[in-house]
Amino acid sequence: MFSEIKSSAERRFETLYPSLLRSRYLLIDDFRYIPIDERAAFLQAGDVIEFLIKEGTESLPLARAYHTASAKAMDVKNYDKAMEYCEIEVRQKYE
Questions:
Q1: Mean pLDDT of the chain
Q2: pLDDT at 78
Q3: Which range marks the domain in which residue 23 is found?
């Protein structure tokens, strides 16, 4: 029922990352993937950034994705990655 309303971006994401979706997320309503823990949320944020870059997304949505990824990296105490994502976020906002 809900799978009929998937956007083309959601379908491309599923095509690019099928094994990731099965291993790290709970499937809700046939198309929403909820991270199972903080590490999964951190990895999901990285997947979203990679996907947005492949899609050629403009800088502001990409900066927001980097901001989220930085916060998730902090949650799992990956401070180096958090700083890296933060620096990229600032560059995206002001380029």
A1: 77
A2: 92
A3: 2-94
> Do the Cβ atoms of 74 and 82 come closer than 8 Å?
yes
Q: Which whole-number Å values give the CA distances from 18 to 14, 38, 70, 71, in the listed order?
A: 5, 20, 24, 25
Q: How many CA atoms lie within 13 A of 16 on its CB side?
A: 16
Q: What is the pLDDT of residues 61-70, one digit of tens each?
A: 888 889 999 9
Dist CA 52 CA 48 (whole Å): 6
User: What is the Cβ-side half-sphere exposure of residue 59, based on CA atoms within 13 angstroms?
Assistant: 8
**CA angle, corner 25, sides to 22 and 31, nearest 5?**
80
Residue 16 has pLDDT above 60, yes or no: yes
Residue corresponding to tokens 């900066």: 63
Please indicate whether residue 30 or residue 57 has the higher confidence score (pLDDT): 57
Count of structural domains within the chain: 1
The dihedral through the CA atoms of 89, 71, 81, 13 has a sign that is: negative
